[in-house]
Amino acid sequence: MLFTIGELIDLVIMVFAIGYIFSSFIRREPAGGYDPLTYYKKSTFFEDIKYASMIAAPAVILHELGHKFVAMSFGATAILHAPLTWYAIVVIMKLLNFPLFFFVGGYVSHTALPPLQSALVSASGPLVNFILYLLCMGLVRFRMINKKYYRMLGIAGRLNLMLFGFNMIPLPGFDGFNMFSSLIQLFFH
Question: For the chain, what is the domain count?
Answer without folding.
Answer: 1
